[in-house]
Design brief:
- The chain starts with 7 loop residues before the first helix and ends with a strand.
- The protein has three helices and eight strands, in the order αββαββαββββ.
- The longest helix is centred in the N-terminal third of the chain and has 37 residues.
- The protein is α+β, with helices and mostly antiparallel strands and 171 residues long.
């Protein structure tokens, strides 16, 4: 019976090297999962290009803007997601926050009833400055919004939408 010579030193080097490679592969797998989840979340809240730079006040000062949620996919004619109505108020950029040069984005989740009214609102994420005055300004305006309700099988139903609000000093 023949045997293959086995060098103990080379075996431990190979094992530790393959362990390091396996560790890096797990790290890459975890990172790609996180990146995939972030891209999916960003895709779900993708803004429309229309009407994103309208000023809040008539003074043409920098303003907060609301990016309307994009429709998810083409549905049958009788079905559809809730859509904001024209004329909904835009958030006021708090004067003291504007003077301080504070910028940020606030992401709100709104529960819409079958009549198109906001029945529940929560701030789910922030980007940039995390100033509670920006949260309050977004919340105050979004509570007044009205929607064309979501439709399922030809009936108005309650639904949830996510609305990003941008506060920028340069607009």
């Amino acid at each position: 019976m023949s045997s293959i010579p086995h060098d103990q030193a080379s075996a431990s080097t190979t094992t530790s090297h393959s362990g390091a490679v396996a560790g890096w592969l797990w790290v890459l797998l975890a990172a790609s999962l996180v990146i995939g989840m972030l891209l999916f979340a960003r895709h779900r809240a993708q803004p429309l290009a229309e009407d994103t730079a309208a000023p809040v006040s008539a003074a043409a000062a920098p303003a907060a803007t609301v990016i309307k949620p994009a429709p998810v996919a083409a549905a049958p004619i009788a079905d559809g997601d809730a859509e904001p109505l024209a004329g909904n108020p835009l958030p006021d950029y708090p004067a003291e926050v504007l003077r301080a040069g504070i910028e940020g984005d606030v992401f709100a989740r709104l529960q819409i009833d079958s009549n198109g009214h906001v029945v529940e609102l929560s701030i789910v994420a922030r980007q940039g400055a995390s100033d509670p005055r920006l949260d309050d300004a977004a919340t105050d305006a979004l509570r007044q919004w009205r929607f064309r309700p979501a439709m399922r099988d030809g009936q108005a139903v309650s639904s949830v939408v996510q609305v990003p609000v941008e506060f920028r000093t340069g607009r």
